[in-house]
Amino acid sequence: MQRTVGVVIAVIGSLAGCKKPSPDDVLLARARDLASAMCACKDKACAEDVHFTATTWSSDMGLRDRSASEAVRKPLAEAGQRYRECRVRLVGEPAPVASPVPSPVPSPVPPTKPARPAAASTPATIDGLLALARDWAHEDDGRIRIVNLAVHYVDAEGQLDDEDGEVTLELGTGAQGASGSKRRLGAPVKAAPAQASTCRSLHWTRKDGWWTTETTSLTSCREASPPFPRCTVPAIWKRAIAKGAPAEALAVLRLEEATPRQWSFTIVDEPRGIDIKHRFADDCDVAIEKP
């Protein structure tokens, strides 16, 4: 063991005689020195002596939590392989899983954003789908808002028909007021960030789940003033029922950002001779869009 320690110290001393070695230089020099000491052994006792020294050094330096730079990863791996092969030759057993000669640590992979909203529960409701879409949009870009809503075949409880129900949500950005909701009174007004010209829409059906489409605007994506929508689908259904709409039917509803906002409510069944069309203001006070 004393011979091995002396070699390690000599290597470090030679590095110190030149410019100050980097942590990676010292790490690689020690790894190569330990590999050479192991391969110079002639019997098992010497191999165990070197391995004890190497294991102690590795533990003291905290090398299992150390990440080597790209420049020394390959020679470090080569030194580790040489160390293990020589030890196996002398000891007659594989080197331990946690080798005292550090292996390169891969660079962490940054998390990716989800490509689409999470799966909807059963039965799917408009409120539930809107919440999933907002959660996804907020994680993707906090400025994204819903600017157009089209709901096909939804009942009075706000549940989409499993077979034919479909939702389309056009995505835009939150309206940039001149004052700014977080700007303190008297503070200067800052220019609004540039808006994207590639606009997306979210689509959902029970069969296919979520998917997205993109369109290119000549100017920029539309702006929405939250909350959008202010009224829930059941609230609009309630108004339609008060005007004579059959409560057991399936309806098509649409709402888009406009001044004033208005819901389009339609029930069409040609074989039964039913053609119901209403428009309702989006003026409820209880619906709150998640920021």
How would you briefly describe this protein structure?
With 291 residues, the protein is of the alpha+beta class. It is built from six helices and eight strands; from the N terminus they run αααααβββββαβββ.
Quickly list its features:
alpha+beta, 2 domains, eight-stranded mixed β-sheet, 21% strand, disordered C terminus
What does this structure look like?
The protein is 34% helix and 21% strand. It has 291 residues and is an alpha+beta fold. It has two domains: 2-91; 126-176 and 193-281, no CATH class. Strands 1, 2, 3, 4, 5, 6, 7 and 8 form an eight-stranded mixed beta sheet that branches. A hairpin with a 4-residue loop joins strand 7 (262-269) and strand 8. The model is unreliable at 1-17 and 287-291 (pLDDT under 50).
Can you lay out the helices and strands and say which pair or pack?
Blueprint (H helix, E strand, L loop, with lengths): L1 H16 L5 H18 L3 H18 L8 H22 L34 H15 L3 E11 L11 E9 L23 E8 L3 E8 L6 E2 L8 H10 L8 E6 L5 E8 L4 E8 L10
Parallel strand pairs: 2-5
Antiparallel strand pairs: 1-2, 1-6, 2-3, 3-4, 6-7, 7-8
Helix pairs in contact: 1-2, 2-3, 2-4
Rg computed from alpha carbons, rounded to a whole number of angstroms: 34 Å
Q: Output mean pLDDT.
A: 77
Order of SSEs, N→C? HHHHHEEEEEHEEE
Uncertain regions: pLDDT < 50 for 5+ in a row? Answer: 1-17, 287-291
Instruction: Give the termini distance in whole angstroms.
Output: 65 Å
What's the total count of β strands? 8
Oligomeric state, counting identical vs distinct chains: single chain
Sheet-strand content, in percent, reads 15-25%
Structural class: alpha+beta
How many structural units, i.e. domains? 2
Largest sheet: 8 strands, mixed
Q: Judging from the principal axes of the Cα atoms, what is the shape?
A: elongated
Question: Percent range for helical residues?
Answer: 25-40%
Number of separate helices: 6
